[in-house]
Design brief:
The protein has 82 residues and is mostly helical. The protein has a domain of 42 residues.
Length: 82
Amino acid sequence: MITTFRLFLAVVFAAAFTTPAFAYIGPGGGLSALGALLALIAGLAIAFFGFLWYPLRRMRRRRRQLVRPGAPATADRPEDKR
């Protein structure tokens, strides 16, 4: 607990005693940073979709097959043949 508190104090003191940089980013650097941020957000959204949606979809199909035993298997459906 003490080491966490010391780290917190170090960060607070470092942030309190910094001087402003007065830096100019420019349009190229700004657009590059914005593009990188949008790519990161899109990548996280796609990862969320891939890791959560597809297993839930598979689980839903399996439950549907249990409810309707006469339904064709998922491999027999045309949308699953890829």
